[in-house]
UniProtKB/TrEMBL annotation, chain A:
Protein name: Carbon monoxide dehydrogenase large chain
Family (UniProt): Belongs to the xanthine dehydrogenase family.
Domain Aldehyde oxidase/xanthine dehydrogenase a/b hammerhead: start-end pairs: 31-140
Essential cofactor(s): Cu(+); Mo-molybdopterin cytosine dinucleotide
Catalytic activity: CO + a quinone + H2O = a quinol + CO2
EC identifiers of the protein: 1.2.5.3
UniProtKB/TrEMBL annotation, chain B:
SUPFAM superfamilies with a match to the protein in the record: CO dehydrogenase flavoprotein C-terminal domain-like, FAD-binding/transporter-associated domain-like
Source organism of this protein record: Cocleimonas flava
Keyword presence, Flavoprotein: yes
Entry keyword annotation includes Flavoprotein: yes
Record's protein name: Carbon monoxide dehydrogenase medium subunit
Transmembrane segments: none
Keywords recorded for this protein, A-Z: FAD, Flavoprotein, Oxidoreductase
Molecular functions (GO terms): FAD binding; oxidoreductase activity
Amino acid sequence: MSTSAESIEREEKLQGVGCSRKRKEDPRFIQGKGNYVDDIKMPGMLCAEIVRSPYAHARIISIDKTEALALPGVHAVLTADDLKPLDLHWMPTLAGDVQAVLADEKVVFQMQEVAVVIANDRYIAADAVQLVKVEYEPLPALVDPHKSMDSDAPVIREDLIGKMDGAHSKRLHDNHIFTWDVGDKESTDQAFEDAEVTVKENMFYHRVHPCPLETCGCLASFDKIEGKLTAYVTSQAPHVVRTVVSMLSGIPESKVRIISPDIGGGFGNKVPIYPGYVTAMVASIVLGRPVKWVESRIENLTTTGFARDWHMEGELAADNEGRIKALRVNVLADHGAFDACADPSKFPAGMFHICTGSYDIPNAYARVDGVYTNKAPGGVAYRCSFRVTEAVYVVERMVDVLAQKLGMDKAEIRLKNFVKPEQFPYPTALGANLDSGDYHTALNKVLDAVDYKELRKEQEEKRANGELMGIGIVTFTEIVGAGPSKSCDILGVGMFDSAEIRVHPTGSALARMGTITQGQAHQTTYAQIIATELGIPSEEIQIEEGDTDTAPYGLGTYGSRTTPVGAAATAVAARKIKAKAAKIAAHLLEVSDDDLEWDVDRFKVKGVPGQEKTMKDIAWAAYNNLPEGMEPGLEAVDYYDPPEYTYPFGAYLCVVDIDKYTGVTKVRRFYALDDCGTRINPMVIEGQIHGGLTEGYAVAMGQELSFDPEGNIEGNSLMDYFLPTAVETPHWETDYTVTPSPHHPLGAKGVAESPHVGSIPTFTAAVVDAFAHLDVTHMNMPHSAYRVWQKCHELGLDKAK
Amino acid sequence: MIPEQFEYFAPSTIDEVLKLMVENDEAKILAGGHSLLPMMKLRFAEATHLIDINGVEALKGISDKGDHILIGAMTTESELIVSELLQQKCPLIPEAAKLIADPQVRNRGTIGGDIAHGDPGNDHPSIMMALDAIFVLQSPDGERTVPANSFFLGTYWTELGENEILKEIQVPVAKPNSGYAYTKLKRKTGDFATAATAVILTLDGDTCSSISIVMTNVGPTALKAEEAENLLAGKVIDESLIEEAAEKAMSICDPAEDLRGDVEYKTHMAGEMTRRAIRIALQRAKGEI
């Protein structure tokens, strides 16, 4: 390849891979010109509002709609009984369970959907909601998942009584969902028996909610003449919604059109299909008018997909030098009243098998039991690749616990146990196949950057003065890019993804993908990939996603799968076009393909200066001057089925100072080094890292959905639920290394979730480290001032000076 | 916001406001709206008639009256913060106003609304009690004044009578050799105080000649820590006296448990905020900061 100044200049003009191209989405967003579901209006549109249960567990005695129906402007009040004849009162979940669209005979969580009112506008609908009279007989609520399998526990799911063959395993109790385990239990148990040192810790990864700025909503419009249903939906996976809607409604999939317009953040919350979407669609079919449903903030936080809620017991076995011999994890997973986890269908615990982390651990065993409670359903992947957040948390916490037991430095124990660069690809004891990594370099770079030794020295001095300073270190490995369709599917559809690129006669291009951006800047970065592959300037490449009538089938955007899968499809589709372009160029230059070389945006005849054809020339020729027998046009589609996951990693370090009199934790420093392989747009990556770190900070330090003993949800408005503002958000320092994925066409790995997954245990590690000299090994999140003060108070540290 | 239906009035004079209140029994006064509108949004507050007093110019503004400053009830928090008059002559008010909610709220929220709502979580009640402010109330029967220290009767319960509005607030200017502080612990921007304390003290040489200590959100109303005040008045304040005063302040706390913390935590935080406020006020009175 030529590296002349002239060709470098041409390359820069393309704004391709590696360029910090400004986000193409931003001009419309910052001018308020975005087009979200609630911005869309249709002639004759009606509004839906949902009647919700005040109880966490109750039998429905009666529902009286009379008064509501009498209110002028009300068109319908639908209940489960109305949906029954259509067989739409229940729907399948992504996790192999079923979920009531509208409560069928009983309610099983607070604010469950009981009825839906359709009216001229939201005001009338909300008035009518108050007029729907529902009589309940309260039942004892099951809130503590540890009591779910008690013999006298109230049965939550009466529809499943006696059905002991669950979707993933035998069910052990009426409130049991599944048992999932992985690894060699026998060898692991043996390693624990033989170990010189073992450690065990119980930790609760609390229930949180992704809380995207835009809540969920749907505008459904059924055309009775054409028999076609069009729905604008806040969905991270519009094609999956189309397939499910077709299966549920019996409408041919070709007559279902799902459009995800601009989406104001998803973070996993917009992967599932919610009762609100279904009721809007059903109401539109029944009434023959467009029906819009948009939930409020409280409805979003209370009823749509929560994340985490795992009670984990972690154990490590090691020798006296700190070499880890085995990991054992037992998890009790609270899934709420319906198993509505959003995982690949065969993975009820998601990608939890990544819980051996970045370490060379010879023996491991993990078991997860899912149970029902009287809480909202969910278990979505909140900015994480399906339970990777939980996996990273448990192993990183346990490595710290082990270090403390052995009196070892928390960085040293990691360096000692890392998988070594020469061991890649590295098969883990739990079946992951780490594609590439250089963990030692990453951690050492961070330790040098922050002058780790000096920090430890300062900490020692502070401790001598009775001050609390903590240093948290996390070295995580993620598993992203679900996934190889041999193992990963959603309701039977393999988790490939797709790209379709058309180069127009004048050399610009249109590309459509099966993924859907929710703020990740796909419009910007996909164009950069095509620019580099085809030599077409990014500015001349239009990216479209989200309309199932035009985009090729894809599984959507979540689990950091866009770059590992969608970007791979894009690169491969572009390469198909380039291969054809080479033939056309050879034809135009009257040489053989082999005589050509690619130079940024053109094919040149090797060794013959001036003999060249640009992609623009070739595009024109593709429509009027082709080699004999070649079909016209210059376009390609690729459905990319990844051969393997990708494994991004990073090394994070956090320094906190704790005010022992108030419990307020101040993040003094946070240094995040990420390795996501090839970096497509460094500026977009930087933005993703900042966003993920800030969300991680929110989860670790404040976000929590808690419940009282009656199952009433607490903290479900932004008055309590912690969204950090610029005031609370720490200053982030970022860094990177580049270890390309060996199997990805671009060497890229996916990055947006790393900072969330990696930062959360880093905050916990830092807070706990502040108390480590007082024999504290773990503290549960969130590390609010209240909770941290309780620890200070318990240890008598808050006594007046 | 999807509230129930309500009738909306936008008068421009105090007389019109009072007339509307008399004519509409159930009417609610809309000031900045940051307490009322969230309640209406959730349909907790029934407001069939809303009297929006944002257009009443006579209720706005800050003026210098020599020994005191007069603040119109509809003066916004942002206006309090930027007032040079207050910064120079009553710096406790701008300092405290900066700690209320966030800029958007402060641009709408008013000092009068904050006081008249009677919410123990609001910050101005403590500030006004610590300052010994006087509230001027107006009803169709005329004008009367009520000292801040006898205005707050309970949660959402004040001396304001039926058909009576808070018109303006008289705050005394800061004395020489005095110091002030408002220390507030909150979970995040926009939150109410977990606990907060307002302190004003005056020194005569090294001796504290007078002090007021009032705490926010640890009881049904703002709480004046009189025993603590009595302990410190007339003494040279040192750390051990501060500790003793904090203990006395804590002993009158009666906070409600919520997601901010339990009774024990909130009580301890009231104690810690009190310690810190006394220390800062003392340093300011001495001219150390």
